[in-house]
Amino acid sequence: MAAGPLSGKAAMAPRPPLGDPRILLATWFGSGYLPRVPGTWGSAAALPFAWVIAAWGGPSALAAAAVLTFAVGIWCAGAYIARSGVLDPGPVVIDEVAGQWLTLLPAAAALEIWHVAAGFALFRLFDIWKPWPVSWADREIKGGLGVMLDDVIAGIMAAAVLYGLMRIAAGL
After folding, report:
1. H helices of 19-112, where?
2. Which side of the chain, N or C, has fewer Cβ within a 10 Å radius?
3. Span 32-62, pLDDT tens digits
């Protein structure tokens, strides 16, 4: 493997072992190593944590957890990039965790299954579709911050749509 980071994602890049706590967190306890759609697996793995955090401390606890995960994620994603040599490694899904938690903020006061399902679908839509400014962050910001930032922006955008849908549903 080349010494410098590869552009984009590489299918044959080495998978750093989960014994390193930074790698364990970057892959959200290994969920990023599940086959085919690591971002979807990471988003799904974030949901039970979101439910527990919101049930325990409401929206403020979920927001604090998302901010902390964003900060820790920059460090962990950077470590994964350094170990794998890939600029935006697919197995790094801590960014999906932070984005998914931000998406669920409008619903965190009274989580209902449809809130969670809609929030999951909306976050995956914005994360995959990458409308501006998500696409800008994905393209222009590099390193651990770049890995994290596009998903945080996608999460904020998905949260806005979820909030709107919840308001519409409450008026029915």
Report:
1. 21-26, 38-84, 94-103
2. C
3. 999 999 999 999 999 999 999 999 999 999 9
